[in-house]
Design a protein that fits this description.
about 525 residues, alpha+beta, five-stranded mixed beta sheet, four-stranded antiparallel beta sheet, 14 helices, 31 strands, about 35% helix
Length: about 525
């Protein structure tokens, strides 16, 4: 349950008379209504308020609720309107019967005569902190505005305010003399000993206001004077109002504390699956998820297999020989890298974490073929030949949440795809965006259909039977992502160069252990439903 829901549940109990016990010695609410009626008559005679000829009075008779509107009107049963039961010592009344409320104004915005040299606080909804005191305002009006728009009358400090437009039911108490705009009403109870009724309304109006007959406005829902007047108020005796307010004030700090704890818990719960997933992947690529087997094929055999495959592809002219080929090895507890004919250099500072002795570090470009669709190829060949059918162009935006979406928008003729062999995608490979917010959304393409790379998407074809699934999970791991983005250019559109992608360090176990790692990862993800 959210803190707001818990708060509303407590307020609902309060309005039903279930939050504090009733005291049979308390003066009933019917006496309070009589006092309100007498006070209103006094104010009418003093010409401080006008008589409402359509004033409503609700009373209970034979277990039913009736409403009499004006002196000449006949009582009408309103049982269907009554939202819930209240104690016998309470009464139902209309908001407009028990309080006098006033709407504010906004002086003409374009006329500086109302706004120059302004010092009088002018309250808008943005100044109202729900359930708090307003001690300052973002805007002021001047003395001219006070006289012309507000007849020189300030709303006194301590007055209850409520928004009824756009944001309906936000309540605050004025901490200073001020005026307010037309989206807010200032509320003055007719009878209010020591702000008792004000404080009761302060607590229950946010909930009661939501039951009003709202109208649609351009920017949201809004109440009007008529619907405000008709709001049904459950009225307890004054002494019980005080008890209810005290009880709510005692409870509210615990609700606020619960809200903070609940928010933190929700955040932890929402983040937990991803964090758990990341932890599993991190353990996996550090060699901590499955045990090493000394009988496994050593990495030197895997390296030889990779070299043989690359030699074959070079002879078939499918790739070019790299004169600056990298080889990483460990000697005397230090890591060295030999590039081409150069002398080996220590790269201890580049190694991101420890791996088992049977594993080996490689540059991604040495164990895979990495390519993209060149910019000139796209502008010269692809763009002029885009069609509505044929070979789909794979875009970075299609890669989301470990899946390749197939809502393809652009296609090219098959003969064009066949002529651009390097960027054609027709067999098992890894796809990863290298430009934009999608960097790191790596997936495995199954090769079950033919497609073609669009700009901003790279393909990685592994050598030597290295598991593509293992590489995908490595890139998704926290360290793998850091290695992928190590040289990312943080411009308006973040990007990774092909050179940086090829330079990425990858820890490689034996082929058997790669399969065991994948099996363990998939099993844990299934068990944990992540």
């Amino acid at each position: 349950m959210k803190a707001e829901d818990l708060k509303n549940s407590i307020l609902q109990l309060a309005m039903e008379g279930k939050l504090v016990p009733q005291n049979p010695n308390d003066e009933p609410a019917s006496v309070l209504l009589e006092k309100i009626r007498d006070e209103k008559e006094r104010l009418i005679k003093a010409k401080k308020i006008k008589r409402n000829n359509k004033e409503s009075f609700i009373f209970r008779k034979n277990g039913h609720f009736y409403e009499k509107v004006s002196k000449k009107g006949e009582p009408v049963c309103i049982d269907e309107e009554i939202p819930f039961d209240i104690p016998d010592s309470w009464e139902w009344c209309r908001f407009g019967y028990v309080v006098d409320f006033s709407l504010g104004k906004t002086p003409p915005r374009k006329e500086l005569i109302f706004w120059d040299n302004a010092t009088t606080p002018w309250v808008t909804i943005s100044d109202m902190v729900d359930g708090k005191i307003i001690n300052c305002t973002q805007e002021n009006v001047n003395n001219y505005a006070l006289e012309k728009s507000f007849k020189g009358i300030l709303v006194p400090k301590g007055t209850l305010l409520m928004s009824f437009k756009l944001t309906v039911g936000k309540v605050s108490i004025l901490g200073l003399d001020a005026v307010h705009n037309e989206a807010i009403i200032s509320i003055k109870p007719f009878i209010d000993n020591n702000n008792c009724f004000r404080d009761y309304l302060f607590r229950v109006l946010p909930l009661i206001s939501q039951t009003g007959d709202t109208k649609s406005a351009i920017k949201g829902k809004t109440l009007n004077s008529k619907s405000l007047n008709k709001l049904l108020i459950p009225l307890p005796p004054l002494n019980e109002q005080r008890c209810i307010v005290n009880k709510i004030e005692d409870i509210m700090p615990f609700i606020e504390e619960y809200g903070v704890d609940k928010e933190q818990l929700d955040k932890l719960n929402s983040e937990f699956p991803d964090k758990l997933k990341s932890s599993i992947l991190q353990e996996a690529i550090q060699g901590k998820l499955v045990s090493q087997d000394s009988n496994d094929e050593p990495s030197s055999v895997l390296l030889e297999r990779i070299r043989n495959e690359k030699e074959r592809l070079i002879k078939e002219k499918k790739i070019k020989r790299n004169k600056n080929e990298s080889y990483i090895f460990k000697e005397n507890n230090h890591f060295y890298e030999k590039i081409g004919d150069n002398e080996p250099e220590c790269i201890d500072s580049d190694i991101p974490f420890e791996i088992p002795e049977s594993w080996h570090w490689y540059r991604l470009g040495e164990i895979s073929f990495i390519t993209k669709l060149a910019g000139f190829e796209y502008s010269k060949y692809i763009a002029p030949n885009i069609t509505n059918e044929g070979i789909p162009l794979l875009k970075a935006k299609y890669i989301k949440e470990d899946k390749l979406l197939k809502n393809f928008e652009h296609f090219i003729p098959k003969e064009l795809s066949d002529s651009l062999i390097r960027s054609k995608v027709n067999k098992r490979c890894i796809l990863t965006p290298y430009v934009g917010a999608s960097i790191g959304n790596v997936i495995l393409f199954d090769g079950l259909y033919e497609a073609h790379l669009a700009p901003n998407l790279a393909k990685i074809v592994m050598y030597g039977s290295i598991s593509e699934k293992y590489i995908v999970n490595y890139i998704k791991s926290p360290f793998g992502y850091l290695e992928l983005t190590k040289y990312m250019k943080s411009t308006a559109q973040p990007s990774i160069s092909m050179a940086a992608l090829r330079d990425m360090l990858v820890p490689i176990p034996s082929l058997k252990e790669q399969k065991e790692i994948i099996k363990r990862i998939e099993m844990l993800f299934e068990i944990l439903n992540i």
